[in-house]
Automatic annotation (TrEMBL):
This is Peroxidase. Ca(2+) 2 binds at residues 190, 239, 241, 246. Substrate binds at residue 159. One of its GO terms (biological process) is hydrogen peroxide catabolic process. Its cofactor is heme b; Ca(2+). Keywords: Calcium, Disulfide bond, Heme, Hydrogen peroxide, Iron, Metal-binding, Oxidoreductase, Peroxidase, Secreted, Signal. The record marks 62 as: Transition state stabilizer. Removal of H(2)O(2), oxidation of toxic reductants, biosynthesis and degradation of lignin, suberization, auxin catabolism, response to environmental stresses such as wounding, pathogen attack and oxidative stress. One of its GO terms (molecular function) is lactoperoxidase activity. Belongs to the peroxidase family. Classical plant (class III) peroxidase subfamily.
Length: 319
C-alpha cells in the first residue's frame, strides 16, 4: 500500500463531460452511502485475480479503453446480443468479461442495484494500474450503463493498428486531453501483449514512415514467422516488462522497438517525440500525465443521473 503513489488529480469535475442536461455529473463520493466498501471489495477481488493471472491487469486496462471508445464508458462492450461489440474484429483479444460479471455478482450481494457495470470496469482498470506498480488514480464515479450496443459503432470508433498520429491525436484530444496526456494514455501499452494477427502486416509490408529497429524487426519475424498466422496462440509483449506498469514502453519506442506502428510513429512525429523522450527519462512525469489522462478517458461522454440504468447483470439490459 505504502509504495503506491497517490496523485491528486486536479481535473475539475466540470470537465467530466456527462452527456445529460440535468447537471448530473460524476463525483468522487458517489457511493459514500449506497456502497461504502465498493473500492475495498473491488481491490480484494482484483488481488485474487492477479494472483492467478499475471496478464489480467493488461486485459482490464484495454477493456476500459475499448468500452469508453464506443458510446462512452457505459459497459456497452459487455452486452451479449446479436449486435454485440465483441463481434467486431477490433475487439479480438479482449478478455476478462467473466471476471467483471463475477465482481458484479459480489457487488449485487453487498449493495443490490447500486453499482453500475461501467463503474466496475473503471475501478478494475485503475486497480490494474496501481497493483502493477503504477499510480493509484482517484476516479470519479456515477456512470450508468447503456441499454444498447452496436457492432458497427465499435468498428467505426475502435482505432485500427495503422492509425496515424493525426488520427491518434484527434481521438484523445477529442476527450479533452492535451498533447502530454494524449501521449501518456498510449503508455497503457506498458502492460500486456499483442497477437501476431495484429502485427504481421507491419512485419511483412513495412511502412517507410514507421522506422523499426532492424534487430527488433528480425525478432518480430521470428516471433510471427508467417504472413498469415497459423495459430492465434502466439503473443508478443508490448515491452520487456509486460506485467509492470512503468516507463519502459517509452524507452523502447524511442529506440524503434514499438510493437504496433502507432507506438513507433508516435516516437518519430515532431509533435510528440519530445514528450516520448521526457516520459522515457522521467517516470514520475509519465505517471502524473497518465493519471490525469486516465480520468479524462474514463469520464468522456458518460451516462449519468437518469440516463441509462444500473444493469442487474452486466451482459444484458434490465427487463
Ligand atoms: C490508437 C490507439 C490504440 C491502438 C491502435 C491500439 C492497438 C492495440 C492492439 C492492436 C493491441 C493488441 C491486441 C491483441 O492482439 O490481442 C493492443 C493491446 C493493448 N492495448 Fe492498445 N491500442 C491503442 C490505445 C490504447 C489505450 C489508450 C490503452 C489504455 C490506456 C491501451 C491498452 C492496451 C493494453 C493494456 C493492451 C494489452 C492487452 C492484453 O495484453 O490483453 N491501448 N492495443
Ligand atoms: C485468429 O483469429 C481471427 C479473429 O478472430 C480469425 O479470423 C482467424 O481465423 C483466427 N486464426 C486461426 C488460425 O485460428
Amino acid at each position: 500500500m505504502e509504495k503506491w503513489r497517490i496523485y491528486v488529480i486536479t481535473v475539475i469535475l466540470g470537465l467530466c463531460g456527462a452527456r445529460n442536461s440535468e447537471g448530473n455529473q460524476l463525483s468522487y463520493n458517489y457511493y459514500e452511502s449506497s456502497c461504502p466498501f465498493l473500492e475495498d471489495i473491488v481491490r480484494k477481488e482484483m488481488l485474487t485475480i492477479f494472483a492467478t493471472d499475471v496478464s489480467a491487469p493488461a486485459a482490464f486496462l484495454r477493456l476500459l479503453f475499448h468500452d469508453c471508445q464506443v458510446q462512452g464508458c457505459d459497459a456497452s462492450i459487455l452486452l451479449n446480443s446479436k449486435d454485440s461489440e465483441m463481434k467486431c474484429s477490433k475487439n479480438f483479444g479482449i478478455r476478462k468479461l467473466e471476471a467483471i460479471a463475477r465482481l458484479k455478482f459480489i457487488l449485487e450481494v453487498a449493495c443490490p442495484r447500486q453499482v453500475s457495470c461501467a463503474d466496475i470496469i473503471a475501478l478494475a482498470a485503475r486497480d490494474s494500474v496501481a497493483l502493477s506498480g503504477g499510480p493509484l488514480i482517484q476516479v470519479p464515479l456515477g456512470r450508468k450503463d447503456s441499454t444498447t450496443c452496436n457492432t458497427q459503432l465499435a468498428d467505426v470508433h475502435l482505432p485500427s493498428t495503422t492509425i496515424d498520429v493525426d488520427g491518434f491525436l484527434r481521438i484523445f484530444m477529442g476527450k479533452g486531453m492535451n498533447l502530454q496526456e494524449s501521449v501518456a494514455i498510449l503508455g497503457g501499452h506498458t502492460l500486456g501483449a499483442g497477437h501476431c494477427i495484429n502485427i504481421v502486416d507491419r512485419i511483412y509490408k513495412p511502412n517507410p514512415i514507421d522506422q523499426m529497429d532492424p534487430n527488433y524487426h528480425l525478432a518480430l519475424k521470428l516471433g510471427c514467422p508467417s504472413k498469415i498466422p497459423i495459430t492465434n496462440l502466439t503473443i508478443i509483449p508490448n515491452d520487456i516488462t509486460p506485467s509492470i506498469f512503468d516507463n519502459q514502453y517509452y524507452r523502447e519506442i524511442s529506440l524503434g522497438k514499438g510493437l504496433f506502428s502507432i507506438d513507433t510513429t508516435l516516437s518519430r512525429d515532431p509533435r510528440t517525440v519530445t514528450i516520448v523522450n521526457q516520459f522515457a527519462a522521467d517516470q514520475d512525469y509519465f505517471f502524473e500525465a497518465f493519471s490525469s489522462a486516465f480520468v479524462k478517458l474514463s469520464s468522456a461522454n458518460v451516462l449519468t443521473g437518469n440516463m441509462g440504468e444500473v444493469r442487474l447483470q452486466c451482459d444484458q439490459v434490465n427487463r
